[in-house]
Amino acid sequence: MLTVNGVSKKFGDFSVLQDIQLEFSNGVYGLLAPNGAGKTTLIKMLTTLLHPTKGEIVYNGQDVYSMGEKYRDLIGYLPQQFGFYKNYNPFQYLQYLAALKGISKKDANEKIPDLLKLVALEGAIKKKMGKFSGGMIQRVGIAQAMLNDPKILILDEPTAGLDPKERVRFRNLLSDLARDRIVVLSTHIVSDVESIANQIIMIKNERILYKDSIHTICHQLDGKVYQTEVDFERVERFRREYLSLSERQENGVMNIRFIAEKDSDAGWKRVTPTLEDVFLYQYQDEGIGQIG
Ligand SMILES: Nc1ncnc2c1ncn2[C@@H]1O[C@H](COP(=O)(O)OP(=O)(O)OP(=O)(O)O)[C@@H](O)[C@H]1O
Ligand SMILES: [Mg+2]
Fold it and tell me: Which protein residues have their CB within 5 A of the ion that is ligand 2?
């Protein structure tokens, strides 16, 4: 069990996170928040790359900073940006990183083919990484994070640059890996965590807004999300009155999905709230998406 206990983080006077309380056991946790909310900051503290200004992070009762190498041996980390040599093939790259992690050459050479197979790159073992697609690079990144068979796998925006097919493959891979480990991944793309995360963690105004199942998080908007058709000339006014979540032109009218907190209308169809709806609702003032 990994516990974040009353953690705050400031850079100088600039406060990013306040009084963060979290517990992780095996499963997939999706850290979901807009750009600049503090996802990477939290993740870097989980990996001991950054120190909290206040509070502690504890693994099975021990402070992770005092555990030092012993803790770092338990984690696998995919940074938001990672560098590699374009002339390396994935086998060479993983060998190089394994050496840095203190894994013997013999162990590494046994393990690397399995890992490349795990991320479906066995066909590209000899191919230079400079020729890889974004998704292939990302999969090498996941393979390197798995080199030490970590108990805690931490992935910062791992789905950036993946095409839809690669996303599906990636989701399946993560659910497999999470059976006997903690997997934490950050993203600002709702659909990336919607189908794989057991728990969603949302950060807002420096604090944890939710740490719950998608079902529970969506519950708050029950009975408030609707769909209706609006004539084009009324769309502007409609947007001022209600929070528009998505809009689609259909048969000469606008089909709008929206939130109405108080009103209701016989012509509106009530729909089941999704995580995307909650995301747009909660971060509506933060200038993301195409709201309003
Ligand atoms: N080393 C630092 N010094 C000063 N400010 C920092 C530092 N690192 C991050 N910040 C600031 O802290 C805030 C949170 O940054 P962070 O990178 O954690 O956000 P994020 O949620 O990962 O964003 P993104 O989705 O863009 O990756 C931002 O305002 C950022 O500018
Ligand atoms: Mg980040």
Answer: 39-40, 80
